[in-house]
Amino acid sequence: MRSLLKNSLFYLFCICFSTACIEKNTVYHSYQSLSHTGWGKSDTLFFQITLNDSVPTLLNLFAEVRNQNSYPYQDLYLFVSQNLRDSLIWETDTIEIALTDKAGRWKGNEWGSLHQSTVPIRSVIVSHTGKRTIKVAHGMKDFRLSGLNDVGIRIDR
Asked: Residue 138: which of 87, 108, 110, 97 has the closest Cα?
């Protein structure tokens, strides 16, 4: 009986260890906190990324937003500019993030009064190393947008 218990614990340990050692496909993941006074129309967020892989790689870009219950709208428009393909060429996408469902209930993961939503931006094939930048600005009509905590960028292989 003890031998069975020891073997079971050993296999459980091996499974946990091997699961923890699996390489994640996330290349970059960062958030920037927004001012408690709101996100200004001209307050562009800059995310600096260093690409080290010289082999052409398909990267998937995601925008992530954390909002409070006090956010006044059901969606959020973002202007996302990036130069991942070529450091000299900027590409801009307009992204809509639906923060609530049709009934007005918050979507995404919830931690108390904080809600996190993630949407894909685009896929990009990158073949050169170097420093790149992703710029994010809100595309809402408000000069100062309230109810948002953080905006993030995630890049996966």
From this structure: 97
- How do residues 83-119 score in pLDDT, each as one tens digit? 998 888 999 999 999 999 999 999 999 988 899 999 9
For CA atoms 62, 42, 44, 38, the dihedral sign is: negative
Quote the pTM value: 0.82
Terminal CA-CA length for the chain: 46
3-state secondary structure 27-44: EEEEEEECCCCCEECCCC
User: Which residues have C-beta within 8 Å of that of residue 133, sequence separation ≥ 6?
Assistant: 46, 47, 48, 49, 82, 83
